[in-house]
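User: What would this chain look like folded?
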Amino acid sequence: MALEPHLTSMADDGKLHIVMVSWLVLGHMILYLELTKLIAQKGHKVSFVSTPRNIDRLPKLPPSLYYLLNFAKIPLPSTENLPENTDATSDLPYDKV
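Assistant: Here's the prediction, encoded as structure tokens.
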């Protein structure tokens, strides 16, 4: 189940600030990044939230969108059932996914 984008504020000019939080699967993150770019192209601000390693894995964005995008890097806490530095399903062996 992927999390939905959340409206966080609306400026006086009617532009939105949207927070995008994707399921920690690279395929989902790529799709959310594409949606993020489409929203930013309409002039809205977007904050894309994920772990530092996941954000660093994402494709680079067009420079024309940088002023509308914020990448919020939030590290995941360690979990006893997951190997160290597991930030996405791609970090796990197939049998652990």
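Strands lie at 6-10, 16-21, 45-50, 69-73. If you want, I can go into more detail on any region.
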